[in-house]
Amino acid sequence: MSKNFEVSALLDYYGMLLTDKQREAVELYYNEDLSLGEIAENLDISRQGVRDSVKRAEAVLFEAEEKLGLLKKNREIHEHLDEIRRNIDIIDELNIKRYRSNDINESIKVILKELEMLNEL
What we know:
By secondary structure, this protein is mainly alpha-helical. Helix content is 85%, strand content 0%. It has helices at residues 3-14, 20-31, 36-43, 47-68, 70-99, 102-120. The protein is elongated.
């Protein structure tokens, strides 16, 4: 995963730990892809001030993830959900080819609905 994507994801989880200025600078830098100079103009601070703010914010975000692991845990959960989805597809295919069971079809629908709800969390 690229650092840009990772910092952006960490910001979603731990952004509340940053000061308003840090959060805004990181959002502009990573999410809006603005340069340090452009951010400095927008926030009315020096380019070096933006750089320092972004670096300090990155440190806070990575430290929070190291201690709490919310992003890692979320990724693991979604990997398991994807594996469940793949197995449901296999069961559905087997049911179509061999069993043609309405009960299995209904169970698959229930499981898929639950998976959808979990994916939205």
